[in-house]
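ok trying this again, last paste got cut off
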Amino acid sequence: MLNYLNLQGYKITIGKQLELFELSKVNYLVGENSAGKSAVLEGIALAMKKEYYTENEQNTVQFIKCFGELDRVFHEFNLHFKDTNSEVKINLDESSLRNGQLKVVKHFHEGTNYDIEQRYKVFYLTTNRGNYQENPLSENIFFNLDNTPENFPKDNIINFINRYKFWDKKVVDMYRSLYKNIVIQLKLEDGTEINLKSLASGYIALLGFYYSLISAVQTTKPEPIICIEEPESNFHPSFQKLIPKILEEFAKDRQITIFVTTHSPFIISKSGEYKDNQKVYMLKDGQTIDESFTLGEGKSGFNGKKIANVVAAMLGANETDLGYPENYCILEEDSLRQLLEPLKEANIIKDIAFISSSGWKKANNLSERIKNFDSERTLLKCNPFYQDKYCVIVDKVPDDEKEEPCYQKLSLLGDRFIQLSKHSIEDFYPEEIKSEFNNEIDGVEEYSQQGIIKGNYARKVAELILESPTPKEKFSEIFNRELDFLLVA
């Protein structure tokens, strides 16, 4: 897979360098119109797909109709990239461009000629169904029902349809029938048959998206580079949120590089869940930018929790407008926060924010403020960590306090109000550590000093968990499975 890309001399990058460092398996390009997103995809396709730069007049005419005069599109075109084993520079011959021909004349790989198509296979996909001049570099991913090969992977497609619940009932078969055997029929478990062509365009586009990815990864040599133009077209936000999940399924166990241009905050938000394999690069005027919109910065992209900043920038908001309280887990004891933070850094528990309230009644006050925010019409559905609704964790509340209004309000949170089975976090600790803790804190009356001791032992328990051969199981064992919902799946 690629780990570095440098594009120069094409469209918005004429006279500039657009550099992307530390590429991931899935790389999203975001920015306003004319930021350089499509230029990256088109530059890769032009330089790495021979059928686009053959000396063919019809091919050149189609390109000019779509992009205009060639010498206004190209100027000292150069694509420079690196992977784990190679460093390659590709140049287009401008003299041949001015003569109406698209022709690559130089592939440099450590000083020698290099056949790029022996190493990589480029797929450039779009979901757009518009009537304007089609981009000659891309192929439409709408499920081509008439030209689907006889051996199309029907089992994969049936599994995909059932997994994402196109219907309440499962699809059990998929076969050709009618009109010279070219129409594809779906058979549901109750015997109902559905003509695939009768599906809504959004469903057909989602199937086409999945089918195109299957086609692209069927061979590992040459290694696929997949460029996807605005996959959100035709998709409701619920479908847009599926895009990162689908791409993760294809990328996580493969050597692959995927570039995606998008204007969808829903896609970018969801990508924050896959920080190991997915990144976002913000572009402006043919260069990368960071959260402060400084040109030339942000070349290494953003992932994980930092995605919230990208979404905020896309929407012209700031991260507090995105429903950040949805990320909160309110804790009665700060010692629990100090225990959980190292586990979060080690990816043992989920990447959510923990805040301590110093008592269960104060936890209710925080919860009330968040509840009010939760009921408003906000942008919180764009939150990268929306799947982790905020919750409140408290020690066991004495029975004589359960009639208080604070407790009744917390109970309204339902399963988001977690009351532990013991009266303090330290009661969960292994006996040896708990004994040491009790001996040290016995007789200490100053509240701040007690807090220091509690924090020290919380971190000691965190170290014990991290040193275990099976840290998730150790965490679960110590807390009697009462905090298992915090574990990373």
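PB: full thing came through this time. The chain has two domains: 2-140+217-316, 324-486.
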